[in-house]
Amino acid sequence: MEVVKIDSISRDRKNIAEFLIHNLEDLGLKVRVDNAGEKVNSNSGNIIARFRGNIKQATPIMFSAHMDTVVPGKNILPICERDRIVSSGKTILGADDKAGIAALLEALQIIKENLVPCGDVEIVFSICEEIGLLGAKNLDLSSLNAQMAFVLDSGGQVGEIVNAAPSQNSLKFNIYGKAAHAGSKPEEGINAIQIAGFALSRMELGRIDEETTANIGIISGGKATNIVPDEVILEGEVRSRNEEKLEKYTGKLKQIVEETAQEFKAKAEVKINREYSCYNLSADCQVVKMAVKAAMDMGLEPKLRPSGGGSDANVLNKKGFPSVDLAVGMTNVHTVDEYILIDDLKKTAEYIVSIIKTAASGKNE
Ligand SMILES: [Zn+2]
């Protein structure tokens, strides 16, 4: 509740960063902040902290959670309601991803208080996850000892392990028609809004197949009712856990817009940007095996599952750093109905401790 009360909209996380640095240092970690903030125009960089363990043969591991939250996320007032923490209803709660942060701080506290034997544990609190995984993209992994990461940033039951997530292309279509007076010379105009309408009606959107989705989320254009509109912008995205399907479907949407524009003797400009790339880790990948074993050790039923969303794990995997995204129980994220069960916060902290113990045993078969 303390952590979600600190405002931390993307690019403005100075206060939360200071709070976390202070807490990590109190827990005995060595803390530094990288220069990712300067690169992405944010007032804090990624926080990288190291807990020195006493077991040499342990597998060095890293945990990460992101510090930024979405809007409306200022002046959050968390309320403890029976078995859960909710927001006042005016803002998000910010369990995405403060639940991961809180559980990590608690787990470190447990390790410290109980002198749990463990190896080196590194913690990364990343910036600007919600606006394009920018912190993770600018994180220098060469400074880390860890060989794998556990990202604490998924909804679902604790024990669910996201071992596959999609790639995402963002799409921006500018459709250029021709302006004209709508009353006196409409025949001289080309209506960009109408072209966009035709193009949209020809697109299949939503769930395309079990690993592919598509969406147009923003439409803008037009200046006045008495002007034939000369420009419309459509913005959207395609995601797939299959690269071939991603490119094929992205190409299809591009073709629809270009061909529709042509029919009306208009022009279309298409911009495609790869936001992040997919990952697909098999069940015998070491990071997956460790997550599974640690869950079983504490009596959870581990479940491997794919996700429809991206996280810092996508970026880390792309950089050759095997990473899974773990469910922490956050529910209805990115809405004012967001909540988290107190039991899930506890379980997540326990799960982190279990993973640290698994890594300390050195063998993860
Ligand atoms: Zn998140």
Structural summary, described in words:
By secondary structure, the chain is an alpha+beta fold. The protein folds into two domains: 14-165 and 278-361, Zn peptidases (Aminopeptidase, 3-Layer(aba) Sandwich), CATH 3.40.630.10; 169-274, Alpha-Beta Plaits, CATH 3.30.70.360. Helix content is 30%, strand content 29%. It has nine helices and 19 strands. The strands form four sheets. Strands 1, 2, 3, 6, 7, 8, 16, 17 and 18 form a nine-stranded mixed sheet that branches. Strands 11-12-14-9-15 form a five-stranded antiparallel sheet. Strand 4 and strand 5 form a beta hairpin. The mean pLDDT is 96. Bound molecules: zinc ion. Zinc ion binds at residues 66, 96-97, 129, 153.
Keywords:
binds zinc ion; 9 helices; single chain; 2 domains; 5-stranded antiparallel beta sheet; 9-stranded mixed beta sheet; Alpha-Beta Plaits; Aminopeptidase
Strand and helix layout:
Blueprint: H1 14-26, E1 30-33, H2 36-39, E2 47-51, E3 61-66, E4 79-81, E5 84-86, H3 95-113, E6 121-126, H4 134-137, E7 149-155, E8 160-165, E9 167-176, E10 180-181, H5 192-201, E11 206-209, E12 212-221, E13 227-228, E14 231-240, H6 243-263, E15 267-276, E16 279-280, H7 286-297, E17 303-306, H8 312-318, E18 323-330, E19 339-341, H9 342-361
Parallel strand pairs: 3-6, 3-7, 7-18, 8-17
Antiparallel strand pairs: 1-2, 2-6, 4-5, 5-19, 8-16, 8-18, 9-14, 9-15, 10-13, 11-12, 12-14
Helix pairs in contact: 3-9, 5-6, 7-9
The chain binds zinc ion (ZN).
